[in-house]
Amino acid sequence: NAGVTQTPKFRILKIGQSMTLQCTQDMNHNYMYWYRQDPGMGLKLIYYSVGAGITDKGEVPNGYNVSRSTTEDFPLRLELAAPSQTSVYFCASSYRLYSGNTIYFGEGSWLTVV
Amino acid sequence: AQKVTQAQTEISVVEKEDVTLDCVYETRDTTYYLFWYKQPPSGELVFLIRRNSFDEQNEISGRYSWNFQKSTSSFNFTITASQVVDSAVYFCALSSDKLSFGAGTTVTVRA
Question: Which of A1, A33, A34, A37 to mutate to test the interface with B (most CBs of B within 10 A)?
Answer without folding.
Answer: A37
